[in-house]
Input
Amino acid sequence: MNTSLTRECAVHCQRRGRGGRQHLQPGSEPLPGKPSRVPRLARLMALALRFEQLIRSGVNYRQLASLGHVSPARISQIMNLLQLSPGLQEQILFLPHTQRGRDPIHLGKVQPIAAVLDWKQQQKMAAKLWRGSNKKHYRTDH
Output
């Protein structure tokens, strides 16, 4: 028997200034655990996979660009992630959450790897990139 528990409470967030951090209002409860977010590269990889489905259904790059309010060139950059080996795509999708600060690996660092056609060479380049990011939990043994 699956029983789910739901807890409801009012939490009010307010930004301080343009682009400022969100702060909880007095009387609201803090969220449990450390705040984290999915790395941007992982979100872009998921987006590339979704775009691939849309393209197969008949949508073109220009239509995708207008839907996302970006240029067709940006769509191409995102779609280049599909040139990575399946193992690297999976690693990117499951990158550990970023606890704070900037993501250690971003799209610009991965684009040269995607330009290489040999998947074994991609793995070597990615291993070097992962080591350079100083994140011990990035695995390249897929």
